[in-house]
Amino acid sequence: MLAFVLRRVFQSAIVLLVVGLVAFSMFRFVGDPVDNMLGQERTQADIERLRADLGLDQPFPVQYYKFLRGAVQGNFGVSYRQGRPVATIIKERAPATLELAAVSGAFAILLGIGLGVFTAIRRRGIAANVIMTLSLIGVSLPTFLIGILLIYVFSVELDLLPSFGRGDTVMVGGWSTGFLTQSGLLALILPGITLGLYQMTLIMRLVRSEMLEVLRADYIRFARARGLRDRAINFRHAMKNTLVPVITVTGLQLGSIIAFAIITETVFQWPGVGLLFINAVQFVDIPVMAAYLMLISVMFVAINLVVDLLYFAIDPRLRVDGRTG
Amino acid sequence: MTDTRAPHPATPGPTPARRSRWTEFRQSDFMYAFLRAPVAIAAFGFVALLVLGAVFAPLIAPHDPFNPASLNLMNGFTAPGVPNAFTGDVFVLGTDDQGRDVFSTILYGMRISLFVGFAAVLFAMVLGVTLGLVAGYLGGWTETLIMRIADIQLTFPAILVAMLIFGVAKGFTPVEYRDQMAIWVLIVAIGLSDWVQFARVVRGATLVEKNKEYVQAARMIGRSKAAIMLRHVLPNILSPVLVIATISLALAIIAEATLSFLGVGAPPTQPSLGTLIRIGQGFLFSGEWWILFFPAATLLALALSVNLLGDWLRDALNPRLR
Fold it and tell me: In terms of CB atoms within 10 Å, which of A116, A277, B130, B302 comes out highest?
């Protein structure tokens, strides 16, 4: 067990080091930020001064060391485009993305598991078949088209929900939240569904196939023979046993939600980290890109690690022959 | 693929002439299965239609959307099939704000979308197959290194990897070449984000083939490693590669559309379907639905039919992918 955990932690550290190197290489070799930051009317003196301010005149190893030291302290330099520290900008933007991710994650998990169990129990029902067909289309639709479709139906035609932005937000101890105002909550609905829909269909299909498998098992048949109620069999016996793979997939999808937030945030002009990143790509704002890359890889690696360990904790069978990893 | 069935009755003579490749293909199990799968035929027909439309866009398109001389601003916002109030011109699918014919922009947009899609998959395939073959056949630290990199890359969603590569490459290209280079950068970015699938499958298949007798025989007569990999192993593992390529094509087309939609893909001077959807989204609230609807519908239909084709191929060739 300990060896397994250590090996996983070691692997994660290696991944982060590699990503750090990539992020730093971006800093060092991509484009000329001075070119981008100064306008057409610049003097050689302006260029030299900015170069010194950004530390671009120093040798490679010094810059690398500075980058690593800064990154560990959460300091990613100054955005070329906004001229403000990247850490500050990300701190401002993070609540928007995290709240959106939380809403769509909850939507995906609750509805995904619910519909999965439903379609498995009522396998031959009309409703279950309709849901399965719709989910196939849902998987083929690119995220941004789902967003546009929802905007068209609920904002343009029905005029029920806002189509862009976060609505009113309230500051709670440095965290701007949209959960506490009506317009904030309404603004979360469409982006939340857009972002969560793919994950929802994925979880639903997984739960369904796992449920169908489990329902065929002997212990379920025995439970029926004992005369237990359907509800107890379905939810207490069957569903519990489907959850192990579901947790793995859901955990890994959590990272994807953060990544795919880029698309949803662009469609809905949601002022989060994803929109910040895509603007950084458009304007070649390397410090923001590098910071985003580092943050998201820490998140991905952490999620992977936690999922692995969780899997280990949930399934006792793994612990017995866990020595092989 | 060997065909052990009796020769076709139409081939005359006591020593039947070697059948042409085409006849062989027509009589293969593959074609037999294909001709009995209506969904596959429909999907293939539709994809072929779109590809032909894209290839012959300059001949088919009623207008040249990128020639400013042929545009008339008075034609702007003409609804589909309705004569324009000022000029009386009729456009099948309407026009956008600058009076460009939507049908023509879609045809030209598909050129970009399909070109980027096919080229990116080709790039990913060549890279992934090569690395997969090398990893599987040579083994050792080469294999460890390649597959480790693949594992790390797989941790991140492909679209994110493509965006990062696009952003970095954009930084490398001088400002004045950015629009020209954008298409090639897109191809490399999407291709690099997608090679892992090929490498993993090819490595797995190579590990199986490597110990078969024909490979041992080839090794014994002293063929070089490269020759064994390319001439002996590769032809025997092509069917899973074909399946992955088809599924990747749908993913690559959607990835390109997504990047272009986000404004980090095809430039406005060379709009792909994604760029057209991005432009059309701006007119969603003002009621000019056709500028958005037709490119979006084309993209969806294209992605869906390539997906269906890929699904069918996977079942038909039945490589143990899952």
Answer: A277
